[in-house]
Design a protein that fits this description.
single chain; alpha/beta; 2 domains; 13 strands; TIM Barrel
């Protein structure tokens, strides 16, 4: 019986060793292949360093992922054609050591300053003409983020549904924990999304802690547009721009000016993303 057990163990060992040896042999062949050598020799030309998030006492700005060559994927892509081809190099992202994902306890007052992008936000209330806004946004081919309260969600589910259906982003503004729970549940029921950001008009430590508890970032506008001068004076990369109701009539002109300055307009999610290769 003991002899039989020893034989079984020995056979298992030999099988495992065979797999291990085969794998190592394959790796040896791969890493001595001229294609792999060429990939490694050129890898530094495509490496992009990460940029850490900028953290101050109570604020944080998003960082930016880096890039490096994915050796295995690049090798497999080139092996199929039997030669090195720089156009078949596959890059993968590397994450910064300091990320906004580690700082829900701080306010975000601006998006990614390394992207030539800004974001428009509109606070939904009963006075706002949503169709007037979306007609302009659609005509200009841009998107935006709409901020809503739980009361507005409950009173206007159809508007919220249509905005989300048109790929506009919906986020929340709250005053207390109960409202956050209600708003997230209401939004989830309408568009199957419960929000990622808490929007504030000014710093509020109580709201900050409530949103941190739910792992939601607290967002403050970089500036509000009450006049065209506000836009000219404060427009910069990463700006989170709140359009006040009295300036909605000038929305077309505002968008034209932003584009003329070389910026694209995106949602908060894009603006705050640290991804270099957008998913």
């Amino acid at each position: 019986m003991i002899k039989k057990i020893i034989q079984v163990v020995l056979v298992c060992f030999l099988i495992c060793f065979s797999f291990y040896y085969t794998e190592k042999s394959v790796d040896l062949v791969k890493y001595t292949d001229p294609i792999m050598k060429e990939i490694k020799n050129n890898a530094t030309n495509y490496k992009v360093q990460t940029s850490d998030a900028l953290v101050t006492e109570d604020e944080v700005l998003p960082g930016y992922n880096g890039l490096e060559v994915d050796y295995e994927s690049s090798y497999q892509a080139m092996k199929r054609i039997g030669q090195y081809d720089k156009d078949r190099l596959v890059l993968k992202e590397t994450t910064p050591k300091v990320s906004i994902k580690d700082h829900y306890d701080k306010y975000i007052i601006k998006g990614n300053y390394l992207k030539d992008t800004v974001g428009l936000v509109f606070l939904l209330d009963e006075k706002i003409n949503v169709n007037q806004i979306t007609n302009v946004l659609d005509a200009k081919g841009v998107t935006a983020t709409f901020i809503t309260t739980n009361k507005y969600l409950e009173d206007n589910p159809k508007i919220i549904y249509e905005l989300a259906k048109a790929d506009y982003e919906i986020e929340l503004t709250i005053t207390d924990e109960d409202e956050l729970v209600l708003a997230r549940n209401t939004l989830k029921n309408i568009i199957n999304y419960s929000g990622e950001y808490c929007y504030l008009e000014e710093k509020n430590e109580n709201v900050l802690k409530i949103c941190e508890k739910s792992k939601m970032h607290s967002i403050l506008p970089t500036f509000s547009v009450s006049s065209f001068k506000d836009l000219k004076d404060h427009l910069e990369s990463g700006a989170i721009i709140k359009i006040n109701n009295n300036e909605i009539k000038e929305l077309s002109t505002i968008i034209n000016y932003i584009k003329q300055r070389g910026y694209t307009l995106e949602t908060l999610t894009y603006l705050l993303s640290e991804d270099r290769i957008e998913k």
